[in-house]
Design goal:
The complex is a heterodimer of chains A (about 270) and B (about 300). Chain A is an alpha/beta fold and about 270 residues long. Chain A is built from ten helices and ten strands. The termini of chain B are far apart. Chain B is globular and about 70 Å long. The chains are: A alpha/beta (about 270), B alpha/beta (about 300).
């Protein structure tokens, strides 16, 4: 079971935004996507669950083409998308109603919906805010509601478009650990971010640049490739950057540490 | 001369006299001087956006007073001149953008204050260059932009007004890494050369800590810390306690420290951190130099 993206091209009224993008993601896999502003990440995200239909090429979700309009309903159920801006996604006025909206649309029985809403709100730490109006929430609280809304739908794949842009460092870690847990449960994760340190646990990272795949590779390959990252407007994250500097100052690593934990362990050896 | 912004025992409540009543600020005291570069940090929901909206009178305190450049925002009938002085970029740019073209969006504030079309054109040209969005067609709808492009438009439209105080709510969110750095450099140079007063709310602790001369930490509607970055990041436990967190470098150094390394951990500069680590590793040859590991 997988999402296959084959020679995908997309344009907005004749202006080309994605060209010949190819990759595949299996259930249980975690793929990170990074690229400078305007490189086409959010457009790609919308192609993955059929909001946008490819101008050329194909997106196939568990064997079903997103172009098949009769199957749209199944595709949306299979691939959940957390939008870059929560305001584009939040629809109901009360937090718990908003989170229930997705599952309700899928025709799930009320008792199960209640369970799922509870589960999703607990997971994002908003269970105490369940009765509050969405409009009265802070920026980061809204972003968490948007994530809960997709969790409650229990999709097979989740596409997250900058899900932590409004969260504090602790909140970022929480979202990331939720994502890793979902991966363990067999959910396919496509994670778009400008905070490249969040991709250290990705199985694969794809760099988008001007609508094309510029480079792809393992987290270690991509996150230590200072030259490539700098060339396309990104930056090497702090820990690998520090690793490279320490190398320059004579501390030898077999493998460049990516995380704080790795670095601490290596330095205490 | 009095402070640029003064807050005396400021309290703010959302939805007073209703079941949804919520005290978002509780007894805030604050002085901000001209030419400062301040970063306001704090966990989600701690009151950062609420606090800064008092600086140009968008919100008014339920109790206490807010004085901006000598004017009490609760008493003045001339908020327009305060808003010209204090430029504010909102957390979600979409809430601030409403024009049909990028040009009109950038021109809106300037027209409102009666600038000539020539002057407006000149400022738009300069500000779009500064923010790296001069490649965008000015007749395009600002609603058809990517997230990062939209944020740059929102920032540019306020910067074009040449405010004396520049207040930005999460301006780095949605910007790519180099975009974040370029924006901070641009703001920093305006702060240094033109003594623009800068107040930035941000969750990107590492980035803003490198530029701010002062960090204010909010938690549950109160200021709990206020000082230079190096002082703030001495108290790692407190920042973790309020579930905010610390910059990655500080977290790394603190972890080394806790395992027994005899090093300072309130370091925000990469080169400095690298030197400290190398020095400590060299001293490791001699086990005596290992600090005794603190008991938990
Ligand atoms: N609805 C639209 N109509 C026309 N052009 C659009 C539309 N949405 C986006 N674009 C343009 O397409 C390009 C890619 O946009 P997209 O939102 O996919 O970028 P992104 O990689 O997500 O950027 P960011 O990091 O800023 O969110 C941008 O140049 C943008 O201006
Ligand atoms: N209109 C409103 N009605 C009721 N409560 C509100 C309203 N706006 C904000 N609040 C509450 O006030 C508190 C402070 O909100 P504020 O937006 O100032 O937080 P913040 O520090 O900016 O958070 P974030 O980092 O998530 O943006 C939050 O608990 C929020 O839920
Ligand atoms: Mg985007
Ligand atoms: Mg806020």
């Amino acid at each position: 079971m997988s999402i296959e993206v084959k020679n995908l091209s997309f344009d907005y009224e004749g202006i080309s935004v994605l060209r010949d993008v190819n990759f595949q993601i299996d259930r249980g896999e975690f793929i990170g996507i990074a690229g400078p502003n305007g490189s086409g990440k959010s457009t790609l995200a919308r192609c993955l669950n059929g909001i946008f239909s490819p101008v050329k090429g194909e997106v196939v979700v568990d064997g079903i083409s997103v172009k098949d309009t009769s199957k749209q309903w199944i595709i949306r159920q299979t691939v959940g998308l957390v939008f870059q801006n929560p305001d584009n996604q939040l629809v109901a006025s009360i937090v718990e109603e908003d989170v229930a909206f997705g599952p309700e649309n899928l025709g799930i029985p009320p008792a199960i919906i209640r369970e799922r809403v509870q589960y999703a709100l607990e997971r994002v730490g908003l269970i105490n805010e369940r009765k509050r109006p969405v409009s009265s929430l802070s920026g980061g609280q809204k972003q968490r509601v948007a994530i809960a809304g997709i969790l409650a739908m229990r999709p097979e794949y989740i596409v997250l478009d900058e899900p932590t842009s409004m969260l504090d460092p602790v909140g970022r870690k929480e979202v990331l650990s939720t994502v890793l847990q979902l991966k363990e449960e067999g959910v396919g994760i496509i994670y778009i971010t400008h905070h490249l340190e969040e991709l250290v646990y990705a199985d694969k990272i794809i760099l988008l640049y001007k609508g094309e795949v510029f480079k792809e590779g393992s987290a270690r390959e991509i996150l230590t490739d200072e030259e490539t990252l700098t060339r396309i407007g990104l930056e090497i994250p702090e820990i690998p950057a520090l690793s490279l500097r320490l190398k320059g100052l004579g501390i030898d690593f077999n493998e460049t540490p990516l995380t704080i934990e790795e670095m601490v362990n290596v330095l205490f050896n | 001369m009095s402070s640029l912004i003064e807050m005396n025992d400021v309290w703010y409540q959302y939805n007073p006299d209703s079941p949804l009543a919520y005290w978002a600020l509780m007894g805030v005291n604050l002085r901000i001087e001209r030419g400062e570069f301040i970063s306001i940090i704090g966990p989600t929901g701690s009151g950062k956006s609420t606090l800064i909206q008092h600086f140009n009178g968008l919100l008014k305190p339920a109790k206490g007073e807010v004085i901006v450049d000598g004017v009490d925002i609760s008493r003045t009938s001339d908020l327009k001149s305060i808003r010209k002085k204090v430029g504010m970029v909102f957390q979600y740019p979409e809430t601030q953008i409403f024009s049909e073209t990028i040009y009109d969006e950038l021109a809106f504030g300037l027209r409102n204050y009666g600038y000539s079309e020539d002057e407006i054109e000149e400022r738009i040209e300069s500000v779009t260059k500064k923010l790296g969005i001069d490649y965008l067609p000015l007749d395009k709808s600002p609603f058809l932009l990517s997230g990062g492009e939209m944020r740059r438009i929102a920032i540019a439209s306020i910067l074009a007004m040449e405010p004396e105080v520049f207040v930005l709510d999460e301006p780095l969110a949605n910007l790519d890494p180099q975009g974040r750095r370029e924006l901070l450099r641009e703001i920093d140079s305006l702060n240094k050369k033109e003594s623009l007063t800068v107040i930035i709310v941000s969750h990107d602790l590492s980035e803003v800590s490198r530029y701010a001369n002062r960090i204010i930490v909010l938690s549950e509607g109160k200021i709990i810390m206020d000082g230079p970055p190096k002082e703030i990041f001495k108290d790692v436990e407190k920042l973790i306690d309020i579930s905010l967190g610390v910059p990655q470098l500080v977290e790394l150094l603190y972890n080394l420290y806790k395992r027994g390394a005899d090093i300072p951990y309130n370091i925000l500069d990469m080169e400095e951190a690298a030197k400290v680590i190398v020095k400590w590793r060299k001293s490791l040859g001699n086990r005596d130099k290992l600090r005794t590991i603190p008991t938990a």
